[in-house]
Design goal:
Layout (H helix, E strand, L loop, with lengths): L3 E14 L4 E14 L3 E5 L6 H8 L7 E6 L2 E2 L9 H4 L2 E4 L3 H4 L6 H11 L8 H11 L16 H13 L5 E5 L7 H18 L2 E6 L2 H7 L2 E6 L2 E7 H6 L4 H8 L6 H6 L41 E4 L2 E3 L6
Parallel strand pairs: 3-8, 3-9, 6-7, 7-8
Antiparallel strand pairs: 1-2, 1-4, 4-5, 9-10, 10-12, 11-12
Helix pairs in contact: 4-5, 6-7
Bound molecules: iron/sulfur cluster (SF4).
């Protein structure tokens, strides 16, 4: 069995709001592992805490509590305190390449910077390496002389991916890498990411609100709701045998492309209400305000994560 490249234990990230001791509990105690060469989809609605998880794993936010291990090494500190050689092994691709790239820099210069900072190539070979990085994402070599402002959103995201690859990382955190792009270019970005993953064996923590996208590209899926993981399972089992009412609600509302998928789809569960504020998380099960199956215990006791079958876990009083 593949070793874990990333291990997250009891991770919390709270943000203070106002002066009354209130906190946004963006991440409220999560545990998960990412294996070497695995694609793990971390899926949730807006406000679920999935992007905060990405930023905390990357050290952009420091954890309020809990631990993050990269290859068994504790990295539960802000990025500024992480060793440089370790930082180069973990890279992030942000949602919006328009803001993550410096539009005043030539693309060659954008790609050169991480190569120099991390001593990735002798000076004489930097140009060749820049060309190689562009080719890895199917962009022509002469793009090194262009500026991001002259490119479309899809090509800018390819440059952002090339920049992430410059340090030869083994783990990529992909924070909604296609959600700011036109539908017409989303498939190209996904295909490029999956080709790179298959060719180089990268591990991806893939953050998205798009559950249907994960069906075809992830090995396992974790569903986040109000700062907690509610269900995590291998992808096939996740879609064939979802046990958490929230997962069932999400799966029942996504389009299917085949009769087989239609047969497996849970009966349509009408979403109830909105996701509550992460400042006022409901007592007991945090999904109780929207759950069609909520009963007395759900308003009093927070359910523990239970193992349903090997690698399949869910957090619900009805799960056993
Ligand atoms: Fe619904 Fe109760 Fe399960 Fe929460 S614990 S998902 S409220 S049945």
């Amino acid at each position: 069995m593949a070793q874990n490249i990333l291990t997250v234990r009891g991770l919390k990230k709270y943000f203070p709001v106002g002066k009354k001791g209130l906190y946004v509990r963006a991440i409220d105690g999560i545990d998960f592992e990412l294996k070497k060469g695995e694609v793990l989809g971390l899926v949730g609605e807006s406000g679920s805490g999935k992007s905060t998880t990405a930023y905390t794993v990357m050290g952009i936010h420091s954890p309020t509590a809990g631990s993050i291990y990269f290859n068994q090494r504790d990295i539960s500190m802000p990025s500024s305190k992480r060793p440089l050689e370790l930082k180069k092994d973990m890279q992030i691709v942000f949602q919006d390449p328009g803001t993550s790239l410096n539009i005043k820099r030539e693309i060659g210069k954008i790609l050169e910077l991480p190569l120099k900072v991390h001593n990735m190539a002798p000076k004489a070979q930097i140009r060749d390496r820049i060309i190689e990085l562009l080719e890895m994402v199917d962009l022509p070599a002469d793009y090194m002389y262009k500026y991001p402002s002259t490119l479309g959103g899809g090509e800018r995201q390819l440059v952002a991916i090339a920049r992430a690859l410059a340090t030869d990382p083994s783990l990529l955190v992909l924070d909604e890498p296609t959600s700011a792009l036109d539908v017409s270019v989303q498939a190209k970005i996904i295909n490029t990411l999956m080709r790179l993953q298959s060719n180089f064996g990268f591990s991806y923590l893939f953050i998205t609100h798009d559950l249907s996208l994960m069906r075809n590209i992830s090995h396992r899926i974790a569903i986040m709701y109000l700062g907690k993981i509610m269900e995590i399972a291998p992808t096939v089992e996740f879609f064939q045998s979802p046990v958490h009412p929230y997962t069932q609600m999400l799966i029942s509302s996504i389009p299917v492309v085949s009769k087989e998928e239609e047969k497996l789809k849970p009966k349509r569960i009408k979403p109830q209400g909105e996701i509550p504020s992460p400042v006022n998380i409901p007592e007991g099960c945090r999904f109780n305000t929207r759950c069609p199956h909520a009963f007395e215990d759900c308003y009093r006791d927070e359910p523990e994560m239970k193992e349903i079958s090997p690698e399949h876990f869910a957090r619900c009083h009805l799960c056993s």
